[in-house]
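Milestone M4 deliverable, item 7.
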Amino acid sequence: MILNASGCLDPLTAPDVARQLDAFVTKTVTPLPREGNAPERIAETGAGMLNSIGLANPGIHRFVDDVLPRLLELGPPVWVSVGGFSAAEYGDLCARLDSTGAAVLELNLSCPNVAEPEDEATSIVAAARAATSKPLYAKLSPALPDIPAVARAAAEAGADGLSLVNTIRGMALDPRTLRPRLATGTGGLSGPALRPIALAAVHACYRATGLPIVGMGGVETGADALELIAVGASAVALGTVLFADPGAPARIRRELAAEAASRGFAEPSAAHGVALDGVASPADALPNEKEQVGLKV
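Output delivered:
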């Protein structure tokens, strides 16, 4: 039920943290190696953290041959985040990963580059679905003008689940020079400020699709995790909190169980969907609800 958000944990340098998770999500992998953006690439703010990493990664071939085998040795199921610059590239990435031990493929759809994001999501997910039999999760941006519509498009094209939400664009200035602190000017904002946005997105997309959702955005406590479950998330991912508290997965798991029990739920999953317009059982309102996949048992 507890994962990391993509890019927020290096499991090869912190294997004990990774083993606290029910599944580990990799940094986004692209067809070719990428060095990423120039520094500065990270800036702390009063509302959270900005990052502009630029999808730095070794490329799909080195990832499959060298990195993925070491990740699989850690124990938790591995979800591989993939990103490309066309539907065909997503399809090629998924085809390359289809015969590996990856449990789930997470499609990073968080930067649509066409006017109609529903069409973009449809073409990317359809290409990925044609290339692999592995479960596919579509990761969406909270900046989309109609995120439920994009979620529905992803579901209709073959997505098995959703990851909500990615960061939202922000800027921080150097207080002395009044110039942007990030070399790229803007970056993705994560942390506490993202939490209400994530709640709204999960709520809307679960009602629209009934798909399993990995909820993320500013989760720092078990109470935060329980709120995401209440609006429809079936799993919760930790992001910025991992930079300051490597023990967060185990701590939040304990807090989540205690928060659920204090409200009369036998287990956290019993609170699933209770915030959806008073419908205590989303299965009654959403008969096509699908089961969460790709987590260790």
